[in-house]
Amino acid sequence: MTDTNKKADVLLGMQWGDEGKGKIVDVLTPKYDIIARFQGGPNAGHTLEFDGKKIILHTIPSGIFHEKTVNLIGNGVVIDPVTFQAEIQSLDIDKQVLFENLLISNKSHLILPTHRLLDAVYEKIKGDKKIGSTLKGIGPTYTDKYARVGLRTGNIKSSNFNKKYKELKEFHLNQISNFGNLKDFKISEMSLEEYEEKWFNSIKMLSQMQLVDAEVFINLAIKKGLNVLAEGAQGSLLDIDFGSYPYVTSSNTIASGACTGLGFAPSKIGDVYGIFKAYCTRVGEGPFPTELFDDKGEKLKVEGNEFGSTTGRPRRCGWIDLPALKYATMINGVTKLIMTKVDVLNSFDEIKVCTKYKYKDETITDMPFDLGDKNLKPVYETVKGWQSSLDNIENFSDAPEELKNYVSFIEEYIQIPVKYISTGPDRKQLIIK
Ligand code: GDP
Ligand code: IMO
Ligand code: MG
Q1: Phi-psi region of 175 (alpha: psi -120 to 50; beta: other; left: phi over 0)
Q2: CB neighbours of residue 220 within 10 Å
Q3: In whole angstroms, what is the distance from residue 411 CA to residue 275 CA?
């Protein structure tokens, strides 16, 4: 029997990434048969913690530690074979099981060594207007995809793959020579030749993996009534169209990206989980109206251990921005909210919440066109902190009143219920509401 009403759920970051997507996907995986990444690439760093272990995933979906679940890398993802192989090797999972449970779309795009060089070159020439890219080659790879010159993972099986690689590499080297000397740019401290050697070795591994028509696989799975969760990377405020452009990533990080990045129809989207931190962080450059430069910001960074999972860079910290969160939930059609890192606020006596902005003499509650406009100032309301540990609280009814008030404040503003509250990095640290 097929179930024509079956739909795939989507889980997405509502801020500037690092909301705790990896942890929550890992927690939700037992409910799903398939976990699928649909965009981004090794710029993502999704952290999972269980049994005293901490794992950071970059390209592999966060359901990989559950043996019964298929993990799918969709056509919208960009793959660097070298970082992908390193990630596979680092995981404490039987490799046969891992290879059986991991499917890769033959239409995903390959990040070439020269894409990574181009990322570095473009950042350098931007000077103080640089994006703060993770330098994983994301922008140049998506540029080539849309310029229709990219290499797809499925190409590695064809006899003219090396020729195509050389042509694209030459094209890139030409571009690089316009801006400087190739020798001035390194890839993870390696020369182009060194990285290229590793890259071709990793291509060999990739060619032994399950490269599939992922869009056919996922549509069949939905039709059969299997449970699918699409795992977003980055966050809505980094979306190429709706984020704080140009300080964004190069893919659609929003719910509709799951359709184009996996190949299922918009009518097949079920629940959309919008995940957000109880405060706000951003890594890299770009506007951040509620950013704190004082001891409170420092405290958020220390208590939240706010250092990038991919680059190790310190994350900028600030208060929650509700107009931005509401905008993100609108763009994504969020049906359920998930609030994370609530424990980081445990020792704060007061928590500030941005509920609107002041723009010159105007008060606005919508997302402005330019979040970086110097005249834009956040307006805060203050809620009382709970000043107690949240350890061992599993039911929302046992939570401190001040936390309940903070959650209600957000729910009333956004008009969407909060379903889960994360109170620590471990799988087990979760309040179900
Ligand atoms: P992702 O990119 O959205 O998967 O998030 P990251 O893994 O980059 O960053 C989230 C960080 O916060 C990781 O170090 C997680 O282990 C950690 N984390 C996740 N949820 C919580 C939480 O509820 N409380 C605390 N204190 N840490 C959390
Ligand atoms: P996850 O999935 C946080 C940021 C970079 C930079 C901008 C563009 O872990 O939430 P890119 O390398 O994509 O060209 O960088 O986007 N960025 C992230 N910030 N979390 C991420 O992923 C990010 N991926 C990219 O810091 O500002
Ligand atoms: Mg991250």
Answers
A1: alpha
A2: 12
A3: 13
Confirm or reject: Cβ of 134 under 6 Å from ligand 2: yes
- What distance in Å separates the CA atoms of residue 331 and residue 236, rounded to the nearest whole number? 8
Under the banding of pLDDT at 50, 70 and 90, the label for residue 311 is: confident
Alpha carbon distance 141, 164 (integer Å): 15
User: Does residue 58 have an active-site annotation?
Assistant: no
Ligand 2 contacts CB of residue 287 (under 6 A):
no
SS3 298: helix
Residue 8 to residue 2: CA distance in whole angstroms = 15
Tell me how far the alpha carbon of residue 15 lies from the centroid of ligand 1, in angstroms.
13
The predicted-structure confidence for 121-135, as pLDDT tens digits, reads as follows 999 999 999 999 999
| CA-to-CA dists, residue 184 to 129, 146, 189, 190, angstroms | 20, 28, 11, 11
Supply 329's token pair. 């939930």
Quick check: 229 and 28 in contact, CB under 8 A? Answer: yes
For residue 140, which phi and psi values (nearest 5 degrees)?
-60, -35
Query: What pLDDT digit, counting tens, does each position of 2-54 carry?
Result: 667 999 999 999 999 999 999 999 999 999 999 999 999 999 999 999 999 99
Position of tokens 């962080």? 281
Measured by CA distance, the residue closest to atom 3 of ligand 2 is 17
Which candidate, 124, 181, 114, 177, places its Cα nearest to that of 149? Answer: 114
Contact in structure between 34 and 72 (CB atoms under 8 Å) = yes
Transcribe 93-130 into DSSP letters: S-HHHHHHHEEEETTSEEPPHHHHHHHHHHHHHHGGG-
pLDDT for the residue 2: 63
pTM: 0.97
What are the start-end ranges of the E strands in 30-164? 34-37, 46-50, 53-57, 70-73, 78-79, 102-105, 109-110
Catalytic pick from 46, 58, 109, 172?
46
Tokens standing for residue 111: 């990040």
Ramachandran class of 49: left when φ > 0, alpha when ψ lies in -120 to 50, beta otherwise: beta
